[in-house]
Amino acid sequence: MKFLLVSFAIVLMILGLTSGYDDHDPCFLKCKFWRSISRICVKTEDGTEKTLINESVLLCAKGCNRNWTLLHHGACPSDPGGF
Fold it and tell me: Cα separation of 3 and 36, whole Å?
């Protein structure tokens, strides 16, 4: 049981470190994100493509007046491992 808890904690740490957004940004600190992982590809204000863990991150960005656009579900070809 202890192994499962440690494994779960490690997975959460990895997701937190590779979520596709700056977790030091005050905007993203106030958002609550869904726990599901269904990656999406978005286009950011500067035209780059970024893979996010799910649509809750995109909704948070739009709530912070970020002009990010959903391109498609799944990882971006330019950022395949991204999260």
Answer: 22
